[in-house]
């Protein structure tokens, strides 16, 4: 009897994929992935690939996929949906074999990956659903050993990786759990790619190979920097930018490790950090550069800069990955579409990067093995959430210590994350890229901060109207929309609103208009949420900033007199009618407020910023593991009793559930949505990538409101705004208009 791993819908069995074909290809991929991390790990990959689908040798599974094929069960050619439902279990077999053959401790290192390679890494003990590894190891399953080749089960246990000595038992447990997740990632990615090569060979052939284009990318970057130097005005700001870029190039030749790049806003950090990363990757033979930022607004600008810079190269060299458009439903098709970061340059968010490092889902974990041997640039590193700091610091240190990564902590202020007597969980052995950051701060002072106290909305609107060019940054989208409407200038070309209620393509168009008006000396009044603060290249003579932390104030000041063309720009820190929202924004604003009297002369001095971090980060040890992520990992590594799903649930940057809503803001957006509607699910991955720029995040209750108003529809499993009057050309998505009543002009056919 021939045993099959995958069937093809309505195709005879001779065209199906045999077990040997599948397990050989998965073993080849997985061994290659793990060997790249450490040559000694090649045997792990071969064992994982050969064993992961042993349960498919059961007659029960073979009968299932034959029946599914004839019944036309779309998306279940490999029994995945049946596995998730619990009706046909083929992944427990290898998990049980590993423990029986290698013993509890060593066997479980493998068993978690085997048991979870379809449904995700399990908890150790889940008595309620019986899905925990403990329960799975005692589960009765269909006989497979009678049919599997005897040579397949004769593997010896592969050698253990050589890690640095852990600091304590808790650290040892963290390290082992992290290792299991990396191994799991390699298996999942190998399984997905092997399945894709059979199920969709055309799509599989389109995947880019391992790129070796860093030299070409560096050549283009160096040419760009040379042009900027020649074309730039002979100002002190431009002289310092050149100096920063040169120091980045020089320090890039150092070995892998932790680095800090402390450059005041306006110092050219985006290109300087990329210069370091590309040169460092070449010098140290690293595989990719990952740029992680706290806000999607920074991604939009950085990715646009990189895209234009590398336009002459293969478009697949760069991946912009930040939305949750990647489907995670239980079908073969959707699993193949999930992203695996197989690109030379990945631009992503902190949410995507860090939540993946603690994830349990296959779609989130798939990319992890590709993070090894990478340069990771953390832009605005000081924005990491306090309540997850300890586990986050441990993950960063582990990537450097055990997985060949270099991490660059980029900040406009001094490093907030360095280990010290006050901050014992901080990162160790950080090498500064800039030789004298304090002198750099003094050289780049271009603004003066005024503390204005409380200002009501009407007075604030009047103050903005009096300025010819002004930026006002507030803390919430509601405040931004209200203030913009108070300007009574919604029909004018000189007033602009920016918030995440606007899709990225819309915001980019607005920013282009803003920059053009600023460049031409025309009137330009902008009301924005904090999305404009970091990484957005605009230059205003006056900036108003609502109550915030000093790190945010420094970012706001970076939008003021950015090019140093004025003697001194004016930054006004004020208290609005409403307090910042509870949580991170409220806490950071309170910490900043405590320091106003002490540092009134220079709220942005290195001394003020250090005092701010002492209040905001270093003295809040009770909050460093507020969600008890480390408690879920435990401190008994030899027991191998890890609760991976609980860890993932506890380690969440964003707690409120959101959904992605696609909006056809312009003709291109409408065309992409039409393309999405017409394409087969196997083929619309590239369309989804392009639609990231036409997406808005909405909360679950907001989605319900839109559903009730009949304002959205499902297109190929993605929500699309169907009532165009709900998307305003100035303000973006306007939920207040979702009352179910259509404008007269929309009712005319």
UniProtKB/TrEMBL annotation:
SUPFAM superfamilies: P-loop containing nucleoside triphosphate hydrolases. This is Helicase Cas3. Keywords: Antiviral defense, ATP-binding, Helicase, Hydrolase, Metal-binding, Nuclease, Nucleotide-binding. The lineage of its organism: Bacteria, Pseudomonadati, Planctomycetota, Planctomycetia, Pirellulales. One of its GO terms (biological process) is defense response to virus. One of its GO terms (molecular function) is helicase activity. Residues 12-193 form the HD Cas3-type domain. It comes from Mariniblastus fucicola. Residues 250-432 form the Helicase ATP-binding domain. It comes from the Bacteria. It holds the Pfam family Cas3-like_C_2. InterPro entries: ATP-dep_Helicase (IPR052511), Cas3-like_dom (IPR054712), CRISPR-assoc_Cas3_HD (IPR006483), CRISPR-assoc_Cas3_HD_sf (IPR038257), DEAD/DEAH_box_helicase_dom (IPR011545), Helicase_ATP-bd (IPR014001), Helicase_Cas3_CRISPR-ass_core (IPR006474), P-loop_NTPase (IPR027417). In the central section; belongs to the CRISPR-associated helicase Cas3 family. The keyword Acetylation does not apply.
């Amino acid at each position: 009897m021939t045993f099959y791993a995958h069937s093809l819908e309505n195709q005879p069995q001779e065209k199906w994929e045999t077990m040997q074909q599948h397990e050989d290809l998965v073993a080849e991929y997985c061994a290659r992935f793990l060997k790249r991390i450490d040559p000694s790990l090649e045997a792990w990959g071969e064992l994982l690939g050969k064993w992961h689908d042993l349960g498919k040798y059961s007659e029960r599974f073979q009968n299932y996929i034959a029946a599914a094929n004839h019944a036309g069960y779309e998306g279940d050619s490999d029994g995945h949906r049946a596995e998730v439902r619990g009706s046909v279990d083929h992944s427990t077999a290898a998990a049980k074999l590993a423990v029986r053959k290698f013993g509890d401790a060593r066997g479980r290192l493998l068993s978690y990956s085997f048991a979870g390679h379809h449904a995700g890494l399990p908890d150790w003990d889940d008595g309620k659903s019986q899905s925990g590894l403990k329960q799975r190891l005692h589960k009765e399953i269909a006989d497979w050993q009678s049919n599997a080749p005897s040579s397949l089960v004769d593997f010896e246990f592969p050698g253990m990786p050589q890690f640095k000595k852990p600091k304590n038992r808790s650290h040892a447990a963290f390290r082992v759990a992290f290792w299991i997740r990396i191994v799991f990632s390699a298996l999942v990615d190998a399984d997905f790619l092997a399945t894709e090569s059979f199920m969709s060979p055309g799509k599989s052939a389109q995947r880019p190979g391992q790129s070796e284009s860093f030299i070409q990318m560096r050549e283009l970057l160096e040419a760009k920097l040379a042009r900027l130097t020649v074309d730039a005005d002979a100002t002190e700001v431009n002289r310092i930018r050149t100096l920063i870029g040169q120091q980045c190039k020089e320090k890039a030749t150092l070995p892998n490790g932790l680095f800090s790049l402390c450059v005041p806003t306006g110092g050219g950090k985006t290109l300087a950090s990329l210069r370091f990363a590309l040169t460092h990757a070449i010098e140290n033979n690293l595989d990719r550069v990952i740029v992680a930022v706290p806000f999607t607004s920074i991604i939009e600008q950085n990715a646009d800069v990189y895209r234009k810079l590398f336009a002459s190269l293969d478009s697949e060299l760069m991946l912009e990955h930040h939305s949750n458009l990647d489907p995670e439903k239980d079908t073969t098709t959707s699993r193949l579409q999930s992203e695996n970061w197989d690109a030379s340059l990945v631009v992503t968010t902190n949410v995507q990067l860090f939540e993946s490092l603690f994830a349990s889902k296959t779609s989130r974990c798939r990319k992890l093995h590709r993070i090894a041997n990478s340069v990771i640039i953390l832009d605005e590193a000081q924005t990491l959430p306090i309540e997850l700091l300890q586990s986050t610091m441990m993950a960063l240190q582990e990537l450097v210590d055990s997985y060949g990564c270099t991490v660059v902590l980029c900040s406009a202020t001094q490093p907030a994350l360095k280990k010290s007597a006050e901050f014992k969980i901080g990162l160790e052995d950080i090498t500064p890229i800039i030789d004298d950051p304090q002198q750099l701060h003094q050289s780049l002072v271009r603004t003066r901060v005024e503390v204005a106290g409380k200002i009501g909305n009407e007075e604030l609107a009047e103050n903005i109207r009096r300025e010819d060019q002004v930026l006002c940054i507030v803390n919430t989208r509601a405040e931004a929309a209200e203030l913009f409407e108070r300007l009574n200038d919604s029909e004018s070309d000189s007033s602009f609103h920016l918030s995440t209620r606007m899709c990225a393509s819309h915001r980019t168009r607005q920013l282009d208009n803003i920059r053009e008006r600023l460049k031409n000396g025309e009137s330009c009044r902008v009301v924005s949420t904090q999305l404009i603060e970091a990484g957005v290249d605009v230059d205003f003579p006056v900036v108003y900033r609502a109550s915030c932390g000093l790190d945010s104030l420094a970012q706001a000041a970076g939008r003021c007199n950015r090019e140093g063309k004025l003697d001194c720009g004016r930054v006004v820190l004020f208290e609005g009618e409403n307090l910042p929202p509870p949580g991170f924004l409220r806490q950071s604003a309170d910490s900043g407020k405590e320091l106003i009297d002490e540092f009134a002369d220079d709220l942005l001095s290195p001394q003020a910023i250090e005092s701010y971090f002492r209040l905001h980060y270093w003295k809040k040890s009770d909050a460093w593991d507020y969600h008890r992520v480390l408690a879920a990992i435990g401190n008994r590594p030899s027991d191998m009793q890890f609760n991976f799903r609980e860890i993932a649930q506890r380690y969440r940057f964003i707690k409120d559930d959101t959904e992605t809503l696609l909006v056809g803001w312009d003709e291109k957006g409408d065309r992409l949505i039409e393309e999405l509607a017409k394409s087969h699910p196997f083929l619309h991955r590239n369309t989804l990538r392009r639609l990231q720029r036409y997406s808005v995040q909405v909360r679950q209750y907001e989605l319900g409101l839109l559903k009730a108003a009949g304002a959205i529809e499902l297109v190929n499993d993605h929500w699309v705004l169907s009532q165009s009057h709900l998307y305003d050309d100035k303000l973006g998505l306007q939920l207040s208009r979702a009352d179910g009543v259509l404008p007269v002009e929309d009712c005319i056919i």
